[in-house]
Amino acid sequence: MRTTSPLAVLFVPFCLAATAAAQVQIPINPKATYLRHENDPGAVPPPAIPLSALGVSVGQWLNITTTGAFSDFGGADTSRSLLCVFSNSPSLLTNAPGLVNRVPGAIAAGASFVSGNTYYSNLTTDLAADFIVTRQSWTNGAAVKVPVGATHLFFCVFNPSNLPYTYYTLNSDPNADYFAVFTPVAATTLPGTAEHPQLRTGVNGAATATPDVKQASAFATLSVEVAQRWGVSTGELFLIAANIYATGGSPPVGPLPDFHMGTGYVVTQVGVMIPAPGLWSFFIPPGQAGQTLILQGFFLTPTARNGLLSSSDAHRIELL
């Protein structure tokens, strides 16, 4: 077991500079949490990480992943989970009875996640502004846009799905290999809301999340998938929508921020999300050369940051 301190935030970026100038790795103490806890004597506060130490500022995109694993609730050293929250200050309130939000400067960003109640007393711990980075057996990593006003970031682990509660005292990292990895990245060409849906497209082959621009000739088979990234969207309604515009022209805009459908779009597929992706396929008809098909996936969910719809990045299929 090991603990972290604010000093680690200062030292780690410099010790890694020679190997990855734009990447910062910070050790994760699995006992550290910004969430409410109850009768959890081993729980400790996490450090407030200044965004300047990560090489990012407001409006930039940050990719966060994890490496290694930790022991959850005294189990095997194989657990992998992480939550993060942006804040407008380094302030973290001391855990106290009745206090749920310990991050007074929390700023909403990324894909929301409902953390489990406390093991003792079954008290709610959820912080609406935080976001999920990785979850056991699902996606490892999240790309998130640094929100206006953010100056610091906190992170903490959460229990896997078979343990729907939070308890930190028995957590440990026996070989001290669990790290958060922060990498400043460029935004995708047409980013979505950076939440739970992921779009994958393929031309005469497997559907992939990247690249987000592909070419297709007449009679090619276009495969489209919309998938949930962290396995918490099962039962939600999904949609795949499409529009078309002249290649080389400006992609459609709206009708909401981070939506790229404009007007005249069509919904090509609707369904209820299950663990497997929602699917749609299409044969490219002749006579469409010079046009670009734009596609985007959506989840209809009250947990969306806008209260209605979350969206994937948009993909473009240039028709030849």
Q: Helicity level, as a percent range? A: under 10%
Low-pLDDT runs = 1-21
* N-to-C SSE string, H for helix and E for strand: HEEHEEEEEEEEEEEEEEEEEEEE
Tell the overall outline: elongated
How many domains make up the 3D coordinates? 2
Seen as an oligomer or otherwise, the chain set is single chain
Overall mean pLDDT stands at 92
What is the tally of helical segments? 2
First and last CA, distance: 57 Å
Largest sheet: number of strands, sense, barrel closure:
6 strands, mixed
Structural class by helix and strand composition: mainly beta
Number of strands: 22
Q: What's the gyration radius in Å?
A: 21 Å
Strand content: 25-35%
Structure characterization notes:
With 320 residues, the protein is mainly beta. Helices cover 5% and strands 34% of the residues. It has helices at residues 6-16, 51-54, and strands at residues 24-27, 49-50, 61-67, 70-71, 77-79, 82-87, 106-107, 117-118, 131-134, 142-145, 152-156, 165-166, 179-185, 197-203, 213-216, 221-228, 237-246, 266-272, 278-283, 291-300, 309-311, 315-319. β4 and β5 (77-79) form a beta hairpin.
